[in-house]
Amino acid sequence: MRVDRSAVGGVLLRNYVVFLRTWRSNTVISVVDPVISLLAFGFGFGALVAKVGNIDYVEYVGTGIVAQTVLFTTIFPGMFETFFKRDYQHTYDGLLAAPVDAIDVVTAEALWLAAKASVFGLAPLTVAMVFGLDPAAGMLLIPLIGLVTGFGFACVGIFIAALASSFAAFDYVISMLVTPLFLFAGTFFPLQGLPDWVRLVAHLNPLFHTVELIRHAAFGLQPLTDLGHAVFLAGFGVLAWAVASRRMQKRLVA
Amino acid sequence: MTGPAISLRGVVKTFGERRAVDGLDLDIAPGTCVGLLGPNGAGKSTTMKMLTGQAIADSGTLSVLGLELPRQSKLARARMGVVPQDDNLDEDLTVGQAVEVFAALYRVPRSERPEAVDKALAIATLQDRRRDSVKELSGGMRRRLLIGRALVHSPEVLLLDEPTVGLDPQVRSELWGLISRLRDEGVTILMSTHYIEEAERLADDVAVMALGRVVARGVPSELVAKHVGSEALEVHAPASRLADITARAVAAGLPTRRTGASLSVLRAETFSPIDVGATGPEVGLRRRAAVLEDVFVVLTGDTGEEVA
Ligand SMILES: Nc1ncnc2c1ncn2[C@@H]1O[C@H](COP(=O)(O)OP(=O)(O)O)[C@@H](O)[C@H]1O
Ligand SMILES: [Mg+2]
Q1: Over 80: is that where the pLDDT of B2 sits?
Q2: Which residue of chain B comes nearest to A249, CA vs CA?
Q3: How many whole angstroms from B43 Cα to the centroid of ligand 1?
Q4: Rounded distance, CA B74 to CA A101, Å?
Q5: Residue A39 has what pLDDT?
Q6: Angstroms from A84 CA to nearest CA on chain B
Q7: Is 0.90 exceeded by the ipTM?
Q8: At what angle do helices A5-44 and B95-105 cross, to 10 degrees?
Q9: Ligand 1 centroid to B174 CA: how many Å?
Q10: What is d(CA A125, CA A142) in angstroms, rounded to the nearest whole number?
Q11: Are B54 and A254 within 8 A, CB to CB?
Q12: A151 CB-contact burial (10 Å; exposed 0-12 / middle 13-18 / buried 19+)
């Protein structure tokens, strides 16, 4: 299996043209949702917890929700949209009849979701700024962090869609996988208070590395540690992409 | 090109225990329109999927335009147009966009795309619906759009999988006009169908498919002559008499078929009604010309009646 740039470009163009006609509903949900979470947690918990370490709670949660947004806006459409396009719209039948292979489809879909997620992640960041988060030069890295993280999680979603035989299967995935992923990543509360083994497992959670990177981008980079986080995320992305491509190939080509 | 545009040799494809395609041999000469005629489940769609690399044969060899499948499938797909059995139009797009996207997917150079799209829309006679959403199209228009879209890159080979299934008769005949124009332009067409009339009208050449293999191949009139002769004797009689007549016809090696309450005994030019016991007051007889449907029913065991 090899990636074919013009095939990926063609699928990206398709998504872009569809997006031009559907962006309103698509964007509103992706942007409003994290902003509501931010307001609810920031002020709800913020009334009880003033600071985490030396960071204001609203800023702590604000940066955490950037990561959560990237997760949600990639893994969910990775699952639901991919499944819908495959089994209901037969979109992939049309693509694969053209000079496009399963690996090209997976690559393009994941890149597309990742690109959108990296932009959607800026919404809670902006709102957090309104509530006192200071702009920092490091924040320019946040879309890139979102892109890499989003690519990996989009591939995870696509992989799950390639395994699933019905939408019902996603319920399990959401409670067994997605919920722990976003809760145990230091998004809303620090991992320090948790039992050692939970903390250990949480370090395998890619989103934990995303959260760390985003916080460091906002409050001060730690080059060596952050390089480690970045390498972890890149590795996660490559692995998820390889697994999703293989699985989708099996699912689309009988 | 001198060889066949499409060639399948001893192709086998199983899904679990089921042999969807079971030793299929099929050659399609360039510039011809071949109808792949077979009942539901005969393996027509599976054959089409193997030609586009969306199903991989267990054994046998396949080639399209001299390109070996599945190894060179991508190159072959770039030169093929495909109209699938299941409608896969992007509902969210406009008619024009739906075609434009495929122009890109099929690598039509950017500068040539507007012209290619215009041409495809003209083939589909949808120029005036260009800005409308795909959602607003009728079933017949959607099919036309699928066909136009499949031609946006001027393919040398067109695969049509049951192009008129589920459409009402008027829309069907409108599509037949469209397909017949394409055939006249010299596009190599492989069209699967389970409508005999469709194959008869459009195909230069018909391959009758049953249980995953080709059981007869040729121009419709020759197939009729070869497999069922020139005449059929239609017998109307009580069920018990029909059973008796059927038994005697079968014993004499004559093909038969049941159509509702009547029995057709084929090759009627070779015997007289008395030979099969079709005499007496309660027996009604009528002679008619043998047709392709008789071949289809006799060879595939399918009733040939529409099952929607
Ligand atoms: N993906 C698949 N998985 C399992 N069985 C299949 C699959 N595709 C086709 N089949 C089976 O293969 C046989 C041939 O199907 P198909 O090629 O769709 O026939 P046709 O198009 O002539 O109606 C049928 O029995 C069908 O159920
Ligand atoms: Mg079929």
Answers
A1: no
A2: B54
A3: 6
A4: 8
A5: 85
A6: 12
A7: no
A8: 120
A9: 28
A10: 9
A11: yes
A12: buried
Rg (alpha carbons) of chain A, rounded to whole number: 18
Q: Is the pLDDT of residue A125 over 50?
A: yes
Bridge pairing between strands B33-37 and B205-210: parallel
Query: Which pLDDT value is given to residue B303?
Result: 62
Residue nearest to atom 13 of ligand 1 (CA): B20
Q: Which residues pair with B192 in a beta bridge?
A: B36, B161
Q: How far apart are CA B280 and CA B242, in angstroms?
A: 12
Protein residues with CB under 6 Å of any ligand 1 atom: A 254; B 15, 18, 20, 38, 40-46
Instruction: Give the residue from B227, B221, B160, B171 showing the smallest Cα distance to B194.
Output: B160
CA A230 remoteness from chain centre: 15
- pLDDT of B307 over the 70 cut: no
Q: Which residues of B touch A100 (CB under 8 A)?
A: 105
List of chain A residues whose C-beta atoms are within 8 Å of the C-beta of residue B106: 98-99
Strands (E), A57-173: none
Residue whose Cα lies nearest atom 8 of ligand 1: it is B46
| Position B39 pLDDT exceeds 50 | yes
pLDDT attached to residue B1: 54
pLDDT in tens, A145-172: 999 999 999 999 999 999 999 998 899 8
Cβ contacts of B109 within 8 Å, gap of 6 or more:
none
Cis, bond preceding B70 (omega within 30 deg of 0): yes
pLDDT of residue B308: 36
B157-161 β-sheet, strand order: B80-83, B157-161, B188-193, B33-37, B205-210, B213-218
Q: Do B88 and A94 touch (CB under 8 A)?
A: yes
The answer for residues whose C-beta is within 8 angstroms of residue B280's C-beta and 6 or more apart is B241
